[in-house]
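Troubleshooting log. The previous structure file for this entry was overwritten by mistake, so regenerating from the original sequence record. Sequence copied from the archived sheet and checked twice against the printout by T.R.
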Amino acid sequence: MDGVAEPYRQRDADLYAGELLNGKWLVFRYEDFGDLDRLLCLAVLEVDLADAGIDTTIVDLPRKGVVLVANKAQLPTFEQVQSVVDRIEYDRFMDRELRSEFAAKTGRHP
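Regenerated output below.
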C-alpha cells in the first residue's frame, strides 16, 4: 500500500494519543460510530487529545464516509490518506470488516 500499513481496527480510546504521538494518524469510518453522534464523538476526542497535549486536526470527508484525525506536528501526505481511503472503500465494496490490530500486524487471526 505504498508505504502505509494496512488499516486496522483500534477500539481503545486510551491508545489514540499514543498512536498520534508516535506519528500515526487515525481514520474513522462513519459506520464505526454506529448510533453515536459523530460530531459529538469527535469533539470529545479533540478535547481529550488537547488535554494530553496533542494539537490535532480533524478532517471530515463526507463523500468518502471517513474522518481523519492527525497530529498537526506529523501530518500524513495526501498520497498516504488516499491509499488508506482507497483500502477502506475496497473493504466496504468487498463487505469486509477491518481486521484487529493483532491480525493486521502479524498476518494471523486471533
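The CA atoms of residues 40 and 82 lie 25 Å apart. Archived copy saved in two places this time.
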